[in-house]
Specification:
The protein is an alpha+beta fold and 186 residues long. The protein has two domains: 39 residues; 105 residues, Immunoglobulin-like. Helix content is 31%, strand content 27%. It has four helices and eight strands. Strands 7-6-3-4-5-2-1-8 form an eight-stranded antiparallel beta sheet. β3 and β4 form a beta hairpin. It is elongated and about 100 Å long. The termini are far apart. The C terminus is likely disordered.
Length: 186
């Protein structure tokens, strides 16, 4: 009988059955807390929060695309991953500014996006430098502005994509232009 009294006086947290029942529950609660923290810390930047504003900006972008087609603009881009040089060759029926901006947008992480100020080397030839090494796929935009805040007011816009796992060169063109028009006939 003294054994039963002694067993009843042991605190609950020292009992085997307490840990057998509540141990996995406590573990799951802590694990859920960690997973929620990691999910919020590493959230995806791809989703647009303001659909209305993006929808309104499409009209401006379409006007930029149509102007690029009207001027017959095409750009060839070459990225040297060893030196970080970005060379742009621009052709079209237009005089080009001394400086332009090239936007490299990462499809998954907005904090990896880069703005490259291109300076004119010769007529239609520009050079800039990457601020950090890049790899894999990127969306590219070229605008005839030297101020990033004026990107949406630019006269024209050329866009494209590059997958650096496959190539270091790509062509940029207007989205209003069919892709077959950008390739010269062989």
């Amino acid at each position: 009988m003294t054994d039963q009294l002694a067993e009843k006086k042991i605190p609950g947290y020292r009992q085997f059955w307490f840990w057998f029942v509540f141990g996995p529950l406590l573990f799951i609660i802590v694990l859920c807390g960690i997973l929620v923290f990691v999910a919020f810390k590493n959230s995806d930047d791809v989703v647009t929060d303001n659909y209305y504003k993006v929808g309104r900006m499409i009209n401006q972008t379409l006007a930029q695309d149509e102007k690029a087609v009207e001027l017959g603009l095409l750009a060839k881009i070459k990225i040297d991953q060893l030196t970080g040089d970005v060379l742009v060759s621009l052709t079209g029926n237009h005089s080009f500014p001394k400086q332009m901006l090239l936007f490299l947008d990462n499809p998954a992480k907005a904090n990896k996006d880069q703005r490259i100020l291109l300076t004119e080397l010769a007529a239609g030839e520009y050079r800039g430098e990457l601020s950090a090494p890049i790899e894999y796929s990127w969306y590219i935009s070229l605008v005839p502005e030297s101020d990033a805040s004026r990107r949406k007011e630019a006269e024209w816009l050329l866009t494209g994509q590059i997958d650096l796992a496959k190539t270091t060169e790509t062509s940029l063109q207007s989205r209003a232009q069919p892709s077959s028009q950008s390739l010269p006939a062989k």
